Amino acid sequence: MIKNYFKYFLPLSIAIFSTLTSCSKGFDADNYVAYIGGEIVNPQENFVLFLKDNELIDTIFLDKDNRFMHKFDSLVPGLYTFKHDPEYQYIYFDKNDSLMIRLNTFDFDNSIVFCGRGDEKNNFLMELYLQNEADKALMFKVFDRDVNRFVKNIDSSFAIRKSLYLKKKAEIGWDANFDLIAKSSLDFHHISKKEIYPYAHQFRTGENIRQTLPKNYYSHRKEVDFDNTSLTDFAPYIRYVNSLLTNVALQNNANDLNENSLNNNIAKLNITDTLIKNEKTKNVVLNNVALMYLLEDQNMYNNQKFVERYLQLSTNVEQEKEITEIYSSVQNLKVGNKLPEISLIDENNEPFDIRTSIKKPTVLFFWTTPAESHLITAHKKAMELKEKYPNYDFIAININDSDSKWRNALKKYKLNTIKELHSVDFEAIRKLWVITKVHRIIVLNSDGTIKNGFANFFDVHFEQNL
């Protein structure tokens, strides 16, 4: 991979490193000058965003060759995020690092390579991230196993990653601040699986194995610093905390095994309030619980009770505003309502108004090119249902690709058997139709009113909607 990187990126490397070399005299013990540059292949926007703790630091624009270069006169060492909609990834800066990034949006995570001062640490984080993602994809059947076989499997997987971590730590010699991020990437992935197992196993097999867990099964919880602000916005930490909250809530509410129920999600809010003392970290976790709940449970009475409890515990005004906006959007998607107006175009670049163009009962489903497996399986499912329910129309809506990428995908995957539409404004459809997960389905009546605004193609009971 590194060899290919230099093959295609050498001209930019020379140009940027010439700049960095000429500026290197400015690096000394008293300043925090840092550089970031790179190239975006197949860009979706003409800029990248650079963020710290979910706060925008700078917008860096691409030139005519889709390259960018930016100098920070002072950049505090730590974990940052670079974002090129709709994807994002982490980047770690030490003092005076100068990093280049090359990526291809058609395979965002797998294509990312770092080069320059600080590249070894960041390439390691990406390598570990990709290994973790590949491991997650293999976990579903592992959750079906008995406790001993499950623990043996995840311990073996963890040992392989830990070996990589120890090897790179010795080779690179990073400091304690970076080690916190590196070790958290390693550890949180492992212990998240331990929290998920009890309820995933019961959901998949019907067997409650909680009483057979080893006495030291949850010993990892003692090692977690839930108030470490360096991890507040770090996805592996948030993912772990959410799996922990779900596990504890389901354990405490033995008669309610629905992780999306009102009782279990209010329990998650209450557990968060007890478990996490740091105000900033607590607000982030509360916000995450609220987002996940509001996008799953669409009982309007439940939503109101949940939001009331959330607002009692949260102290972040901006996050509270986001949650109340989503709550309002969900209210607008009640059965019998018309969908809020969204700009959509068809393959001929003609506007398509869902509110007025529907003449038959209709199923709307959504896709995006980064989720290739969903793209394929969702279209296949739609074709099967179209044949089974000829009185229904099925419409596919691409939610967040560029126009050219959408049209290329239509050709590549031969998507010409059902109506294909493209969302002109991803933020609008995300907010007004609350489309944050591609598995969402909206079922409409023949007059365009909502029959079910929050269905799922792959729910075993989905066809009851039809």
TrEMBL record:
It comes from the Bacteria. Gene3D superfamilies: Glutaredoxin (3.40.30.10). InterPro entries: Thioredoxin-like_fold, Thioredoxin-like_sf, Thioredoxin_domain. PROSITE patterns: PROKAR_LIPOPROTEIN, THIOREDOXIN_2. Pfam families: Thioredoxin_8. SUPFAM superfamilies: Thioredoxin-like. Residues 333-466 form the Thioredoxin domain. This is TlpA family protein disulfide reductase.
